[in-house]
Amino acid sequence: MEEKVHDCIFCRIIAGEIPAEIVYEDDTVVAFRDLYPVAPTHVLIVPRFHTETILDLAKTEDVDDTMARVMFAVSRIAKSEGIAENGFRFIANTGRDGGQTIFHTHFHLIGGAPLGEALLPPGSIKAPDDHPLSQVPSKGNDPVKPIVLPDPPGIAHL
Ligand code: 5GP
Ligand code: ZN
Question: Ligand 1: distance of its center to the CA of 142 in Å?
Answer without folding.
Answer: 30
